[in-house]
Amino acid sequence: NMKNCRSHTRKQITRIYIKLLTRAIRTLALFAFTVFTGLSSGYAEISFSVSPPIMELNVPGGGVKVMKLLVYNQGEMPIHVSGSVADMEIEPDGNTALLSAGASPWSCADWITLDNDELDIDAGEKKTVIARLSVPRGKRGGRYAAIIFQATGSQKKDAGAIVIGARLGTLILETIPHTLKKGGEIVRIETRMEGDFQPGEKVPITIVALFRNTGNVHIKAQGSVVIKDSNNRIVDRLPLIAGTGTVLPDGIREFKGTWSNKSKMAEGEFTAEARITFPGGRAQASANIMLGVNRE
Q: Which end of the chain has fewer surrounding CB within 10 Å, N or C?
């Protein structure tokens, strides 16, 4: 029945957020290295870049891809750069998080080797690092990793020295041809009125759709919402935004929009129908919006 269905949905959402919290804790541990990108009182900055920032690959099982990564010291002091490979994921808010290599079932970190993982780079100098991706046979779907470069430099001040540093990287999005399955579902949609308001006042309403990638490869999705009145007539449309809309396998992404067209808002009950579309499919869910009446 409906009560059991809602109870199951709440338990499902709880499991999702516990999983995300656990990943966040692991990510914080990975970022324990202190990053300073600028210091006052005569300290120089570490300023360096890594290109390209992202590589989307399509290497079959048994294949090898050789990648050239450019590390450029744009600062005014020599730096030492250490290279490594980590897992990556995209969080619900769109930020990229790093995990230890092998933590994700969708990892290709162990497939990547670097020809040189320790570099000394003078001010204004560029160096090339060769990364090699070797895809084992029999693997399926999309696989993901981040090649990380951590730069450190020593600044002497009075009788001591302070080590400062920064970290950048290249994201690797690998898809294995002819093994891909795309799918997704909206696991939750919610609406909320923002800020303080008086009964009957027309205020912006935020609509959030929580979308899960149920396939085995990353997808780039787009969202929209249709507002319907109690007679099922369309009164408004608006986009649901999530940056590039990229969602990794098993990943969760928030698509957000705001209904603020007061000329379309009238007292009564409305339905917000959220639609998330992606190449090869779409997902849909709805939620009620009550205007000018007691919602309890």
A: C
